[in-house]
């Protein structure tokens, strides 16, 4: 998939935005062909050099950019030449989806296997043990803690887990 196609996908735009933030997004959204220095990018995009470097290192940490160092023979200074590796984005997104699936599965299990109580005044939720320790009274305002049904939350998480498993082609036993 070409850079242009990737960058037109709203999911990929959101992914890049989550990685580099709003100040780094111009760097992520404008990958040049071939190698480029951080200084060239900063000048071309009209950004602070530190913002460009931060975005480049985030992309590097996520396998979306690589660099090679070149030492200037006269000054001894190192120059970093950056190359964007956006062909790794689909695999990175798949890994993110697997992490999300695992996190939702764990949270769904937690919600399903615990009993909760709610202070309706403060909107603070307590596990059964905590509620019992507080004598089923809110430690903030003293209101009684009411048993809380979380079936809607568990059902929503179960649906999302099923959707992710379908999308990732993962069995429930995996």
Automatic annotation (TrEMBL):
Keywords: DNA-binding, Initiation factor, Protein biosynthesis, Transcription, Transcription regulation
GO biological process, one term: transcription initiation at RNA polymerase II promoter
UniProt xrefs under InterPro entries: TF_E_archaea, TFE, TFIIE/TFIIEa_HTH, TFIIE_asu, TFIIEa/SarR/Rpc3_HTH_dom, WH-like_DNA-bd_sf, WH_DNA-bd_sf
UniProt keyword DNA-binding present: yes
Pfam family, one: TFIIE_alpha
GO MF annotation terms: DNA binding; translation initiation factor activity
Domain of life where this protein originates: Archaea
Domain HTH TFE/IIEalpha-type: 8-90
SMART domains (alphabetical): TFIIE
Keyword DNA-binding annotated: yes
Transmembrane spans: none
Quaternary structure note: Monomer. Interaction with RNA polymerase subunits RpoF and RpoE is necessary for Tfe stimulatory transcription activity. Able to interact with Tbp and RNA polymerase in the absence of DNA promoter. Interacts both with the preinitiation and elongation complexes.
Annotated family: Belongs to the TFE family.
Its job: Transcription factor that plays a role in the activation of archaeal genes transcribed by RNA polymerase. Facilitates transcription initiation by enhancing TATA-box recognition by TATA-box-binding protein (Tbp), and transcription factor B (Tfb) and RNA polymerase recruitment. Not absolutely required for transcription in vitro, but particularly important in cases where Tbp or Tfb function is not optimal. It dynamically alters the nucleic acid-binding properties of RNA polymerases by stabilizing the initiation complex and destabilizing elongation complexes.
UniProt remark on domains: The winged helix domain is involved in binding to DNA in the preinitiation complex.
Protein name listed in UniProt: Transcription factor E
Organism: Halogranum amylolyticum
Encoding gene (name): tfe
């Amino acid at each position: 998939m070409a850079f242009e196609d990737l960058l037109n996908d709203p999911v990929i735009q959101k992914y890049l935005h989550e990685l580099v933030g709003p100040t780094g997004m111009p760097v992520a959204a404008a990958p040049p062909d071939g190698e480029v220095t951080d200084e060239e990018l900063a000048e071309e995009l009209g950004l602070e050099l530190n913002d460009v470097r931060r975005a480049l290192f985030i992309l590097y940490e996520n396998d979306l950019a690589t660099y090679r160092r070149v030492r200037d023979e006269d000054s001894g200074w190192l120059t970093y030449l950056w190359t964007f590796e956006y062909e790794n984005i689909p695999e990175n997104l798949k890994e993110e989806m697997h992490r999300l699936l695992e996190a939702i599965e764990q949270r769904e299990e937690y919600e399903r296997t615990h009993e909760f109580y709610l202070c309706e005044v403060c909107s603070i939720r307590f596990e059964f043990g905590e509620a019992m320790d507080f004598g089923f009274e809110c430690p903030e305002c003293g209101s009684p803690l009411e048993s809380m049904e979380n079936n809607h939350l568990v059902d929503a998480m179960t649906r999302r887990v099923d959707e992710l498993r379908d999308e990732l082609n993962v069995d429930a036993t995996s």
